[in-house]
Design brief:
Length: 534
């Protein structure tokens, strides 16, 4: 039986001979054995449906459906426009649209959330009824899930899965743009791997983003990298790429040994002026180095400085993934400033997700830890990044190898405001996120809300929400991270323990963040679904 099966229908036509083959998602790399498929994959637009339907669309006439087992509108599709093997990802749910740039391609998608055998699938979905329409196609038809790409590394295929080792949630930074400059950005890994890939985002950009060169290397100290460790990062075999507005791009796999719990430098050369207010991650708590010209491959990063126009923000870089056959998946920590590590030391990597990654390594568990916290974020407003309910699909469920998600502290910002939300509304939001995660076969670790010296109805609402989370029979949570118990004062649970108070009565200090990491039951991260290779 196949878990989370994604069926791929391929129609090849060469030399007058046609054949149709069905694959599941983890066998997509088998396409690499066909030179025709390899060539055509670089020109193919890939779609992922949001329902259990099979549809073929003629790209020359995007509104014309050739064959379908049910009605399916363009707005229900997840469009992954691919050019030269580069995936440009749009919003997965609700804002997806057909890409009309790629011509002469017939696209077919079948997204099945149930478990089927191949023969059962053919019988149950009535494949024979629509195969004749597919056979009219003269090109390869393929499908990949968001966050997946070819597993070919320097010409060799591998079945290892992609697992996230580092991530940062995209929002809008406060900068004036860049021009003929190189950014060197430092990320702290959680797990290691034998190969790497990066994701760059122009999600909130107002103009196409041109990347002239990208490199990855081991960090020595500061802006300096270890000589000889530098590797070029390519996109569809090319050293440069242009990312459309609202899209993201995944690099080709790089043969690069990624160490666990270590700093990796990713350098991006921006040859032309970029628009102000870049897509990036505010409050990255990490120095970003900027230099004039293209010095991406220079270990010394000559001329580099830390005078970033947007402060200690990450720019354009949202993910570093690794291949690691031993990995059992990734846990996504989804939340606000406490998850983001706001009161931790700059360049210290002492956020509680960082500390959790250390615990997992010490326990011999190869689980990626992906921080998707945005300081100031809440469930309902776009005041600090997109609202939690809106970004959850992209920032949590679509992370590479995600098997677990910790729903952390967004709700605190919905309570700690002039117009606090009710407990009922916040519990409803939690139920919605839990249901969405379970539909994606991702387990949910619910976190209790830490105290912030609230009183009256607001404190009562916090306690009601925590009581709901701790009630395993009604919450739907697969496990609980009791952050409130970890950092509150036993003598007065409405406030932080003085030893864990950063001084603002809201954010735990580094000792408090360590206490949160220590409160995670690692057994909750041992029973995830198997990770399958794309």
């Amino acid at each position: 039986m196949w878990n989370k099966a994604l069926y791929v229908v391929i129609c090849l036509s060469a030399g007058g001979r046609r054949r149709t083959v069905a694959f599941r998602q983890c066998l997509l790399s088998d396409l690499g054995h066909s030179s025709l498929a390899n060539r055509l994959l670089r020109e193919t637009t890939m779609l992922c449906a949001t329902s259990h339907k099979i549809t073929c669309v003629d790209v020359q006439r995007p509104a014309h459906v050739l064959s379908t087992t049910g009605s399916l509108r363009a707005s229900n599709l997840n469009s992954l426009a691919v050019r030269q093997s580069v995936i440009y990802r749009t919003e997965r749910i609700g804002k997806d649209r057909l890409n009309r740039q790629t011509k002469n391609i017939v696209r077919c998608v079948c997204n099945c959330h149930r478990t089927h055998r191949s023969s059962a699938f053919h019988k149950e979905k009535g494949v024979n009824r629509w195969i004749p329409a597919l056979l009219k196609a003269a090109l390869v038809i393929s499908i990949v899930l968001p966050g997946t790409a070819s597993n070919r590394v320097q010409g060799a295929e591998t079945s290892a899965p992609w697992i996230g080792t580092w991530s940062a949630s995209p929002s809008i930074t406060d900068d004036d743009g860049f021009n003929n400059q190189t950014l060197r950005q430092i990320v702290r890994t959680s797990i290691g791997g034998t190969s790497a890939r990066i994701r760059l985002s122009n999600l909130f950009g107002s103009e196409p983003l041109v990347i002239g060169e990208a490199r990855i290397a081991r960090c020595a100290q500061g802006q300096q990298t270890v000589p000889g460790s530098d590797r070029a990062v390519t996109f569809g075999g090319q050293p440069n790429v242009t990312i459309p507005v609202g899209a993201s791009v995944v690099s080709d796999p790089v043969a690069f040994e990624v160490p666990p719990l270590a700093d990796v430098a990713i350098s991006l050369y921006l040859p032309v002026r970029t628009a102000p207010r870049s897509t990036g991650h505010v409050d990255g708590l990490q120095d970003i180095y900027i230099a004039a010209g293209d010095v991406a491959a220079d270990p010394a990063f000559t001329g580099g400085n830390t005078f970033s126009p947007g402060g200690q923000s990450y720019y354009f870089l949202t993910n570093l993934d690794v291949m690691n056959p031993a990995a059992t998946g990734a846990v996504v920590t989804f939340g606000a400033s406490i998850t983001d590590g706001l009161k931790s030391t700059v360049n210290g990597n002492r956020r509680w997700p960082n500390r959790l990654a250390i615990r997992l390594q010490q326990a011999g568990m190869t689980v990626g830890v992906l921080n998707q916290g945005i300081s100031g974020n809440d469930f309902f407003t776009n005041n600090a990044g997109q609202a939690g309910l809106k970004r959850f699909g992209r920032d949590a469920l679509q992370q590479s190898g995600a098997n677990w998600v910790v729903i952390s502290d967004d709700a605190i910002n919905d309570l700690n405001t002039d117009k606090p939300s009710t407990a009922a509304r916040l519990i409803g939001a939690l139920r919605q996120l839990i249901e969405r995660a379970h539909r994606a076969n991702i387990k949910v670790i619910c976190s209790t809300l830490t105290p912030f010296a609230a009183t009256g109805p607001v404190e009562a609402a916090r306690q009601d929400i925590n009581a709901f989370i701790l009630s395993s029979t009604t919450s739907g949570c697969d496990a609980v991270l009791d952050q409130a118990k970890a950092v509150s004062d036993p003598a007065n649970p409405a406030v932080l323990l003085p030893a864990y108070n950063s001084g603002d009565d809201l954010h735990p200090n580094e000792a408090g963040l360590q206490a949160i990491a220590d409160a995670m039951d690692l057994d909750a991260l041992t029973a995830g679904p198997p990770v399958q290779a794309p």
